Amino acid sequence: MAAELDWWGALVEEDPGIGELARECNAMAQRVTDRHGHRPEALAASQLLARCASFLDSAGRLRGALPAVQLQHLRATCAGLVVARLLLTDANPETLSNRLAAAPAGP
């Protein structure tokens, strides 16, 4: 997860905690439109990164309680980071955006 955030330009410490990852993810969500403009795929990537930050915040608040729920939040974050990256690097982001619109929202 830290490596994926590193691709976005986040300053991730070695062995970061969930709180640090959530803050960096939220910061990247705010910077995406600055770097990539207000194209639909950049806005979608920004929204996904914000959702990932929310999942990380939720996982952090659980503090080890309900490990299955915490794991689901972490999995949704990993998937969201990958999809957000694909939105900006895929040759045909409209197709990906259409597939995402039909997909379930996550936990």
Description:
With 107 residues, this protein is mostly helical. Helices cover 76% and strands 0% of the residues. It contains 5 helices and no strands. Helix 2 packs antiparallel against helix 3 (40-62) and helix 3 runs antiparallel to helix 4 (67-89). The radius of gyration is 14 Å and the shape is globular. The protein starts with a helix and ends in a 5-residue tail after the last helix. The relative contact order is 0.16. The mean pLDDT is 84.
Give keywords.
107 residues, mainly alpha, 5 helices, 76% helix, 0% strand, globular
**Secondary structure: number of strands:** 0
Number of discrete helical segments = 5
If you average the pLDDT, what whole number results? 84
How much of the sequence lies in strands comes to under 5%
Which value, in Å, is the CA radius of gyration?
Answer: 14 Å
> In angstroms, what separates the terminal alpha carbons?
18 Å
Main sheet, how many strands, which sense, barrel?
none
> How would you sum up the global shape?
globular
Order of helices and strands: HHHHH
Indicate the percent of residues in helices. Answer: over 70%
**Low-pLDDT segments:** none
Content-based structural category: mainly alpha
Could you give a quick summary of the protein structure above?
The chain has 107 residues and is an all-alpha fold.
Topology, pairings included?
Elements (H helix, E strand, L loop, with lengths): L1 H6 L10 H19 L3 H23 L4 H23 L3 H10 L5
